[in-house]
Amino acid sequence: MKKKWWHDKIAYQIYPKSFYDTNGDGIGDIQGIIQKLDYLSDLGIDIIWLSPVYLSPLADQGYDIADYYQIDPRFGTMEDMDELIAEAKKRGIYILMDLVVNHCSDEHEWFQKAIADPEGKYGKFFYLEDAKNGLPCNWRSYFGGPCWEPLPGTDKLYLHVFHKKQPDLNWENPEVREEIYKNINWWLDKGLGGFRIDAIINIKKALPFRDYPSDRSDGLSSIHNMLKEADGIGDFLQEMKHRTFAKYDAFTVGEVFDAKPEELEDFVGEEGHFSTMFDFTTVCFGTSEKGWYDCRQITPEDYKECCFSSQEAIQDIGFYANVIENHDEPRGVSHYLPEGEVNNTSKKMLATINIMLRGIPFLYQGQELGMENMPFKSIDEIDDINTLDEYKTALDAGLSEAEALKVISRYSRDNARTPMQWSDAPAAGFTTGTPWLRVNPNYVSINAAAQVHDEDSVFTYYKKLIALRKHPEYKDTVVYGKTIPYLREQKNLMAFYRKGKEKTLLILTNYQKDPQSVKLPSEKYRVLLNNCSTLNQKGDFITLEGYQALVLELL
Questions:
Q1: Mean pLDDT, the chain, whole residue set
Q2: Which helix (H) or strand (E) covers residue 34, if one does?
Q3: pTM for the complete prediction?
Q4: Catalytic residue among 60, 198, 266, 372
Q5: Active site residue 294
Q6: How far is the C-alpha of 101 from the C-alpha of 64, rounded, in Å?
Q7: What 3-state class would DSSP assign to 151?
Q8: Is residue 255 flagged as an active site residue?
Q9: Among 435, 370, 434, which residue's Cα sits nearest to residue 18?
């Protein structure tokens, strides 16, 4: 494999609205990110991915962009953005922005011009169809309801696979692609390290529009049914890569949910469309077309098999980006650890898996502190449009309000969007004003100020894991070595080798609250990391405490 500058890096996602507020308006800002760069540098972060800070009406929290060349005043100015890029560079940190090009905002100049003249140039920037024939197809929007909306003041409909304020851009139109490439290069000229590429699988539609079998009582069909038949996305992605990213040796990570297995090499192989793509195997496990209320909760055995199957699929091709949470998911520790068993030891165990698997680790803000899901008391506390739709779906399926609230509390995107917990000061030290979203009440015990100097904290453990990954003696093994499962059949044991050219590491994690005995392949080893204070060995067996995690170097 050709070695690239991003292979050994640790990335960290910032959700700017909830990260750190410097002006007291209750909304995080770019200056807040600048002020926390030393905190991230101390943790060992090399790449920062910013969720969108472009001008936006925030119908979908910035993923509805009204101007790709402007910073939204809520977050700051373009001068602030330039300062962030420069200050990060001083610390050896690369900045990624979110590239949102499946759709724009309905407040974008292009869409406003399409409304004014549907038959003109900008009408062709979108998917417009005559309304007189009814809906062109029965696709369901990701956020519920049909994908078609009347184009204001006209006899046309426009396509939106996300929110109705997010009209889809017509990638079949070369003029649209030219505008997108121009913008990408403009940002890369500013010194960006690259992009996280949002919802990119959706840019290729199966045309002409047609209905698919209905899968809910609303008579609509999941958008995923169309995506299975949408061929030819690779042509668009290769063109974009060679017109933009490749010229700058930029790092790109794709949000790709519906790639077909045979396309993996096309996406992230040696000549792939992207540098890497997120591994969503665990995220997608147990999901249901019926809605969140019908999801099956993931077990430790499920989690293990998801991770190992992904590792086996990718390791001769390229790298996945490994995640346990992001702005679109609940908190990882609340999702992947059994209820009632979320504690510092189990959080560190999950961290060990996340950082020690082969791939590029992506942490999400607060993950390094072990931030947890929010205890929502009412649907009125929910801001996220997706969660509100899933709440309605659960009620329509016959769940009571209490049952529906419990379901959405487990899966809501707002779990990850609550303000970052910096200290036990009011509003968790996030703002001197009123936070835009309620702070998780556990901030008094889970916060950065309490953890940064605590040798036994989740933060310090993450810092040790990252330092081990970067250690000159072990870096090649952890970055490029193969992942080989060990004792795969032993229940609730997730154990694997990281086998490099010169060294072999063995990671042992006990994915349950009860101790269990594990046979060692060798009695000669060095302990590199242990999330517990004990190590119980008798002969060639070791007894792991509940949620104990060990990183061993075999000698």
A1: 97
A2: helix 30-35
A3: 0.97
A4: 198
A5: no
A6: 10
A7: coil
A8: yes
A9: 435
Which pair of tokens denotes residue 47?
């790449």
Strand pairing class (47-50; 94-99): parallel
How many helices (H) and strands (E) the chain has is answered by 19, 23
H or E stretch at 476: helix 475-480
Q: In Å, how far are 95, 178, 260, 329 from 282, measured between CA atoms?
A: 27, 36, 16, 11
Angle 67-136-150 from CA coordinates, rounded to 5°: 50
Instruction: Provide the 3-class DSSP secondary structure of residue 222.
Output: strand
CB atoms within 10 A of CB 86: 12
List 72, 80, 255, 368, catalytic entry: 255
Amino acid at 435: P
Largest CA distance in the chain: 80
Which residue type does 236 have? Answer: F
Give the DSSP letter string of 388-404: HHHHHHHHHTT--HHHH
Model confidence pLDDT, tens digit, residues 321-380: 999 999 999 999 999 999 999 999 999 999 999 999 999 999 999 999 999 999 999 999
Spatial distance between the Cα atoms of 520 and 555, rounded to a whole number of angstroms: 12
> In this structure, what DSSP letter does residue 359 have?
S
Burial 264-290 (b: 16+ CB within 10 A, else e): bebbbeeebbbbbbbbbbbbebeeeee
Which three-class secondary structure string do you get for 90-131?
HCCCEEEEEECCCECCCCCHHHHHHHHCCCCHHHHHECEEEH
